[in-house]
Amino acid sequence: MEKENFAKSSEDGRHFRLMQLAGKWEGIVRTWFEPGILADESKISGEFRPILGNRFILHEYNYELQGKPHEAVSITGFSIPEQKYQTAWIDSFHNGTSIMFSDGSEKGNGFSVLGSYGGVDFEERWGWRTEIDIIDKDNAVITAYNITPQGDEARAVEIVYKRIK
């Protein structure tokens, strides 16, 4: 049954939507460390590649933050049995040596996933919500929000991508 559902999803469903991101992209990344105070704005370049027979999409990207180069990788898919988008994300600045796992649902022209981060330096874990909006075939916006343990939310990162043709 899942094989049939995956075939249908690849034709016109959620896997098809993910594969629309495939290609090379460039744009601007903005970072906030405090609510409402822009800390950095830099160029970003990235590529989305289908992997494992279009079951997942791999996003690799490079950017600068306060003049220092960084890189990141995410793997995103849609779990048919769980009916959720799922993401594993690593980043040379934000995550340190941790992998952030997130899951969530469809939202407008894309999807939203929620994960959390913390560790010995944190009394409580913080939430991290990532939204991917596919504006059209050549424009996408990825926005991430920090969520305090008390539930207050503030924009942390925004990537405004344009497809390289």
Explain how this protein is built.
This protein has 165 residues and is mostly beta strands. It has one domain: Calycin beta-barrel core domain (Lipocalin, Beta Barrel), CATH 2.40.128.20. It is 10% helix and 63% strand. It contains two helices and ten strands. Strand 2 (37-51) and strand 3 (56-65) form a beta hairpin. The model has no long low-confidence stretch (mean pLDDT 94).
Task: Provide a compact summary of the structure.
It is built from two helices and ten strands.
Count of runs of 4 or more consecutive helical residues: 2
User: Could you give me the name of the CATH homologous superfamily?
Assistant: Calycin beta-barrel core domain
Biggest sheet strand order reads: 1-2-3-4-5-6-7-8-9-10
Helix content: 10-25%
Count every beta strand, where a strand is a DSSP E run of 2 or more residues. Answer: 10
Instruction: Give a quick account of the main beta sheet: strands, pairing sense, barrel closure.
Output: 10 strands, antiparallel, barrel
In terms of topology, how is this protein built?
Elements: H1 2-12, H2 14-19, E1 23-34, E2 37-51, E3 56-65, E4 68-79, E5 84-91, E6 100-107, E7 110-117, E8 126-136, E9 139-147, E10 153-163
Antiparallel strand pairs: 1-2, 1-10, 2-3, 3-4, 4-5, 5-6, 6-7, 7-8, 8-9, 9-10
Features:
10 strands; 165 residues; 2 helices; globular; Lipocalin; mainly beta
